[in-house]
Amino acid sequence: MSPPSSLARLARPLAWIVLVIAAVFGVAYWWLLGRPVDLPDSPTAKIACVSYAPYRLDGETPFDPNAFISPERIDADLKALSTRFDCVRTYSMGQGLGAVPDIAGRYGMKVLMGIWLGRDTIANEREIKLGLEAAKRDHASLRGIVVGNEVLLRGELSEKALAAYIERVNAATDVPVTYADVWEFWQKHPGLAKAVDYVTIHILPYWEDEPVAPEKAVRHVADVYQRMKAEFAGRQVMIGETGWPSQGRTRREASASLVNEARYVREFLNYAATVDMPYNVIEAFDQPWKRDLEGTVGGFWGIFDVHAEPKFAMVGPVVEEPRWTWAIAAGGLGALVFIVGGAVRRRWRGAAGWSALALAGFASGTALAAHARLLLFACRDTTEWIVGAVIGVAGGVTAFLLARAIAARLAAPVSPAAVAPRPAERRRWGIQWADTFTPQRFFWMFVLTLYGILMVFNGRYRDFPVGLFALPCVGFFVLALLRTRDAIAKPLVEERLLAVWLVILGAAVVVQERGINAVSWGWLLLNLLLAVPVLVEWRRAAARAP
After folding, report:
1. Are 195 and 179 in contact (CB under 8 A)?
2. Strands 110-115 and 318-319: what pairing?
3. CA distance 378 to 299
4. Of 495, 392, 390, 484, which is closest to residue 438 (Cα–Cα)?
5. How far apart are CA 404 and CA 245, in angstroms?
6. Per-residue pLDDT tens over the stretch 256-308
7. Which of 193, 449, 467, 540 could lock onto 371 through a cystine, CB 3.0 to 4.6 A?
8. Residue 535 burial (CB count, 10 A)
């Protein structure tokens, strides 16, 4: 027998290092989420104006033609909002929202009343009719009328058609009239300023083509605002939307988190207090329906959650995840389950095996807790919950089976035959597999590749499910380390192809994120942990071939 290679001699120490790192990372990740973060205090708990859409309960969406929000519901919302906001901005007049100006007036609030415009000319006429009736009926409650919201951004109307609608409304009322869109589209259509009484721009640093880090976001808003003031000299410029999401994927340096939402709102209010600038914050309540359009991040721009509870205080430290100790408990439970399950049909002895099971179980428990947290925010319906739970269970089972195999190799065997290499190839389901773990590895490689394709070609609104894929990726990598001396059969052609694609797709995500998104590097690492052992096995098997 030839002497073991340097990699084979280092295999056991490297395996232990990976297991320890995985467990420590699980603790550190959740501890960081649970620690209080000091942020600048807001100069006030009052906010000038906030976007108001009442569609926060399960199944509610403005796209439902039969949706109707009762005046009683609107009254309850505005009564609560009046303690924190002087004004609300609406986006349409239908589905009961025409009652907002009247009800807001009862609580001393002003309204930026929205008239929704789109491709449907009949719907546009209905919106304008309702808007003009409200302008006459509730004149005293209105601060302005927003005729159209981001209709140029969506490409649903031409500048000429939009201007005609705005001029019609402006001619029919003395309430100030404006149009609201992303600031770049005002730059592309400066002539539209002639039709409005003031310019309303949206500045959302998270959604910029070049996303802005939360620490630099308010500086970016200030720079853009001053630039737009200069471009539209002599005209009042209002920030019609600005804010930050509390959940969702990271876009380059722009991380969606509760701490960053609190940071942005507080810093923005500090900035707003130093300038004469009308503004509106997006938005009052989280909007679950927006996840259909924008992924997880779309549903979490609210200052209040779906239960109308404030998501963060305006002063003092902010905690990202107050329930973080539950995740540590999940790690402890995972360690216990792996140890108890590992005792069944055990063919090894000594503390090393138990230690490996405990470390793998703890790391797996904390990873499953991260997956569960993602499901909590991302799942939109029962089907998504079922799919997410099933694949989470599959990941946990795979991690457990891998942990047992790893423990057996790290521990002292009861007899040499107990851990002797098994036959290099096995047939299952009519397919010649390299070994008993190959079907599971093939499954996870296929799923990760499929998701990787979606991330590369349609990833703007997709989350990074790192917690889920960490389970098989880390486990298969550690097992591969411990099998460096085994007679490994050549991997399936499909496995080799998937391994190459995993490397390419993982690297592509990093490139798309310009290399500044730390999460994308973690995603690449998981791809490499699953792909590289297959490529190494391929090379080893090819080297042994006659």
Report:
1. yes
2. unpaired
3. 9
4. 495
5. 41
6. 999 999 999 999 999 999 999 999 999 999 999 999 999 999 999 999 999 99
7. 467
8. 17
Measured over the CA atoms of residue 423, residue 429, residue 432 and residue 433, the dihedral's sign is: negative
* Contact between residue 22 and residue 526 where contact means Cβ atoms under 8 Å apart: no
Q: Are 297 and 256 in contact (CB under 8 A)?
A: yes
pLDDT band at residue 543, thresholds of 50, 70 and 90? low
* Pairing assessment for the beta strands 50-51 and 348-349 based on DSSP bridges: unpaired
Question: What amino acid is encoded at 461 in this protein?
Answer: Y
Q: How confident is the model at residue 322 (pLDDT cuts 50, 70, 90)?
A: very high
> One-letter amino acid identity for 108?
G
SS3 track for 353-385? HHHHHHHHHHHHHHHHHHHHHHHHHHCCCHHHH
From the number of C-beta atoms within 10 Å of its C-beta (0-12, 13-18, 19+), residue 337 rates as middle
Give the DSSP H/E element, type plus range, for residue 267.
helix 258-272
Q: What is the distance between the alpha carbons of residues 75 and 99, in angstroms, rounded to a whole number?
A: 9
Q: How far, in Å, are 8, 370, 472, 534, 536 from residue 530 at the CA level?
A: 19, 20, 8, 7, 11
Environment class of 484 (CB within 10 Å of its CB; exposed 0-12, middle 13-18, buried 19+): buried
Alpha helix segments (H runs only) across 35-142? 71-81, 100-106, 121-137
Q: Note whether 443 and 469 are within 8 A (CB).
A: no
Per-residue pLDDT tens over the stretch 479-534: 999 887 665 667 778 889 999 999 999 999 999 999 999 999 999 999 999 999 99
Nearest residue to 232 (alpha-carbon basis) of 197, 283, 278, 280: 197
DSSP string, 121-159: HHHHHHHHHHHHHHHHHTGGGEEEEEEEESTTTTT-S-H
Cα separation of 187 and 156, whole Å? Answer: 18
The pLDDT tens digits for 433-475 are 456 788 899 999 999 999 999 999 999 999 999 999 999 999 9
Residue 471 contacts residue 417 (beta carbons within 8 Å):
no
Q: What is the CA radius of gyration of the chain?
A: 28
Of 58, 90, 85, the C-alpha closest to 74 is 90
Indicate the Cα dihedral angle 44, 50, 52, 58, nearest 10°.
-60
Cα 496 to Cα 480: distance, rounded to the nearest angstrom: 15
Q: What are all long-range contacts of 76-80, with beta carbons under 8 Å and residues at least 24 apart?
A: 77/52, 77/284, 77/285, 77/308, 78/52, 78/103, 78/104, 78/106, 78/107, 78/109, 79/107, 80/308
Task: Let me know the angle formed at the C-alpha of 114 by 108 and 117, rounded to the nearest 5 degrees.
Answer: 170
Indicate the pairing of strand 110-115 with strand 142-149.
Answer: parallel
Please, which residues bridge with residue 114 across strands?
Answer: 146
**Torsion angle of the four alpha carbons 175, 65, 292, 213, in this order, in degrees rounded to the nearest 10:** 0
Share of the chain above pLDDT 90, in %: 83
Beta bridge partners of residue 285, listed in sequence order = 304
CB 78 within 8 A of CB 88: yes
